[in-house]
Amino acid sequence: MATTADMSRGLILKLDGSLYSVVEFGQNKTARAGAKIWAKLKGVDNNRTIEHTWNSGDTIYPVRVEKKPYQFLYKDDSGYNFMDNETFEQIVLAEGMIDAPQFLRDGQEVSVLLNTETDLPMSVELPDKIVVQVTYSEPGLRGDTATRTLKPATVETGATVMVPLFVNEGEMIRVNTKTGEYVERVKE
To answer: Which helix (H) or strand (E) holds 40?
Structure first.
């Protein structure tokens, strides 16, 4: 069994019948009472974000999670289709299980988090940063660079990303999939 001393970021816990990932945690001490451990938890199998407090030394129930490389194949009426890179087995997942579905490209490699107790997929993580091509963008005005002005640009996946004025149609850019923000221009 694990205790609150084993708490860490990214740890997946079973709490009240649901699975939660630890986003951040800390400790509160007072002179009169024992230490309390608090954690901000994000739902893995639901869309809830909660805060929970334990007494120091309480038992927690971590869930063993395995990250496996999968390849995104296509999207259809049943959901998003992925293929295991080792066994070539295919799975279909709902859009809510994917952290940034607007940036998925056919053939892109992703990480699928599997619950080792049930062998069921829990979520899909894209790489932190991906390189995409700008398919449509209004031309920037020459000389309008005194401030960090942004303009909308459509990328090859169909998502819209705010980019600096100097980024033009046809260029490759790096995008942060967690925030959806432009990172840098990529030279081919």
So the answer is: strand 36-43
